[in-house]
Design brief:
Layout lengths: L1 H5 L4 H12 L1 H4 L1 H4 L8 H17 L5 H20 L3 H13 L22
């Protein structure tokens, strides 16, 4: 059906069918892989604090400042989603840095609790 729509000659349908066809392999992944959600709601909710921060703080004044904010917000959200303490992670990261040791990982650890679900 997508191939037919792609070749239909209808400008709106052609573009939509072409996009859907180009992404067809990933469109139904959520039906085959447990834990994959059919929407991007989780990602959108995860980005919300960063968007609000940017709006309220008027952004940063440099590329270096932007990278810092991106990274610290990533650490914060990742720790929240894994049920980890951001403060403890940051203390461990700074301690490792000054001791010339390997930084702690943000990769999920086995047995970690999932973050509490948020009410919509």
């Amino acid at each position: 059906m997508l191939l037919r729509g792609k070749r239909s000659g209808n400008k709106g349908m052609t573009g939509m069918c072409k996009e859907l066809y180009n992404h067809r392999d990933g469109l139904w992944t959520f039906t085959k892989v447990e834990g994959i959600e059919p929407t991007n709601n989780t990602a959108e909710r995860s980005l919300r604090p960063a968007v609000i921060y940017r709006k309220l703080s008027f952004g940063t004044q440099s590329a270096k400042g932007s990278r810092f904010i991106e990274r610290i917000l990533t650490v914060s959200e990742t720790c929240r989603m894994q049920g980890r303490s951001v403060f403890e992670f940051m203390v461990d990261a700074v301690t490792a840095h000054f001791a010339n040791q390997t930084s702690p990982s943000l990769l999920p650890q086995s047995g970690m609790s999932k973050a509490p679900s948020r009410a919509a």
